[in-house]
Write a structure and sequence with these properties.
By secondary structure, this protein is α+β, with helices and mostly antiparallel strands. It has 11 helices and 5 strands; from the N terminus they run βββαβααααααααβαα. The protein is 47% helix and 13% strand. It has a 5-stranded mixed sheet with strand order 2-3-1-4-5.
Length: 239
C-alpha cells in the first residue's frame, strides 16, 4: 500500500494479542539497551499481556533488521494477531482496488487539467519504457516480466481518482520497482502469522481507509495537483 507523512494509509497499528500463558509476568519484553529503544512496541498490562506494534508500508527487508528482538518475540509468542487490514483476504484487495476508481462513466482525463494529464501520460510512458532496465536479475529469475509489473501497478490508471494516481506515481521509481515482489512489512507479518497457524483479524474496514481520501474536496485535491504538476515537470524534464 505507500508516501510517509501525508496519508494515514502509510501508518498502521498491529495488535498482538493473547500472549501464551507460559510467557511469564506482564511486561516480559523489557527494553534492554539502545538497540531496543523506540521499538514501536506498546504493552497492554493484563494477564496475559497484549501489545500494539506500529508498522509502515514498505518492503519488510528494508526495516526487518532494525526491528528490536522484543517486538519479534512478542509476535512469535502471541496466539492472535490483528492487522490494520487483512491483506491476505482476496475481498480486501478487490475492495481496495474498487474504491480507487472514479464514478462509473468518468475518466481521469475528464477531471484533470489537460496539461497535467498530458504530463502524467508522458511520464507513465517513460516509466513503462524504463521498467525492463529497472528490474533486478532476481525478479526476472522469479518469472516477473516488465509489462506484467507495470500493469500490476499502473493498470487502469485512467479510471482512478487523482489522489490514488498521485500515490501510484510516487511508487513508480527505480528503487521501488527493484523492491517489487518483496511483501511490505504488514503483509509479511500476516503471511508469517498464517504460516505459524495464528488466529488473525483486522481492526479496520476498507471503507474506513478509502472514504477519507475519496472525500477530499476539489480545493484540497487541487493543492496536491499543483505540487504534483511541478514534480512531473521536473521528472519529465529528465526524459
Amino acid at each position: 500500500m505507500v508516501h510517509p507523512g501525508w496519508v494515514c494509509l502509510l501508518q498502521s497499528l498491529l495488535l498482538l494479542a493473547r500472549a501464551r500463558q507460559n510467557r511469564g509476568p506482564a511486561g516480559a519484553c523489557p527494553l534492554r539497551g539502545k538497540s531496543e529503544l523506540n521499538s514501536f512496541l506498546w504493552t497492554i498490562k493484563r494477564d496475559p499481556p497484549s501489545y500494539f506494534f506500529g508498522t509502515i508500508h514498505v518492503p519488510y527487508t528494508r526495516v526487518w533488521d532494525f526491528i528490536p528482538e522484543n517486538s519479534k518475540k512478542a509476535f512469535q509468542q502471541s496466539h492472535i494477531v490483528y492487522f490494520e487490514l487483512d491483506l491476505t483476504d482476496p475481498y480486501t484487495i478487490s475492495a481496495l482496488t474498487s474504491c480507487q476508481l472514479l464514478p462509473q462513466g468518468e475518466n481521469l482525463q475528464d477531471v484533470l487539467p489537460h496539461d497535467i494529464y498530458r504530463r502524467l501520460k508522458r511520464h507513465l510512458e517513460y516509466v513503462k519504457l524504463m521498467m525492463p532496465s529497472w528490474m533486478t536479475p532476481d525478479q526476472r529469475g522469479k518469472g516477473l516480466y516488465a509489462d506484467y509489473l507495470f500493469n500490476a501497478i499502473a493498470g487502469n490508471w485512467e479510471r482512478k481518482r487523482p489522489v490514488w494516481v498521485m500515490l501510484m506515481v510516487n511508487s513508480l521509481t527505480e528503487v521501488d520497482i527493484k523492491s517489487r515482489g518483496v511483501p511490505v512489512l504488514d503483509l509479511y507479518l500476516a503471511q508469517e502469522a498464517e504460516r505459524l497457524r495464528k488466529q488473525t483479524g483486522a481492526v479496520e474496514k476498507v471503507e474506513e481507509q478509502c472514504h477519507p481520501l475519496n472525500g477530499l474536496n476539489f480545493s484540497q485535491v487541487g493543492q496536491r495537483l499543483a505540487g504534483w504538476h511541478r514534480a512531473l515537470g521536473w521528472l519529465l524534464g529528465q526524459t
